[in-house]
User: Fold this.
Amino acid sequence: MTKAEKLKEALKIGDFGGDGIDAMIVYAYYAGKEKATKTVSDNYNKLLSEQKRRAKDCRYHHMAMKVQGNVNYIYHKDYSQDVIKTFGGDEIYLQENNLKKGELNYGKR
Assistant:
């Protein structure tokens, strides 16, 4: 099984609350998606603010603002980081008995 296939399988199950490797994969996927959304949204908002400031400084600021348009912040539901807030503090229980060196086994409590 490839990494892409394992990710697809774990996302199909969609279990955030378990202690298994699938739960870790699903959490990591959505946490990364939420962080990326927040980063892109913050950068976009900063860019818009800077463009508006420059437009207002122009001699023909009314025309510059019309060209840019009155565009505001674009909101995406992942910006709120609900998955990170909800599941980020959950404990992980690892089974460390009978493992070979360098091997991790994510198991049930």
About this structure: Residues 55 and 63 are 8 Å apart (CA to CA). Residues 3-87 form one domain. The mean pLDDT is 78.
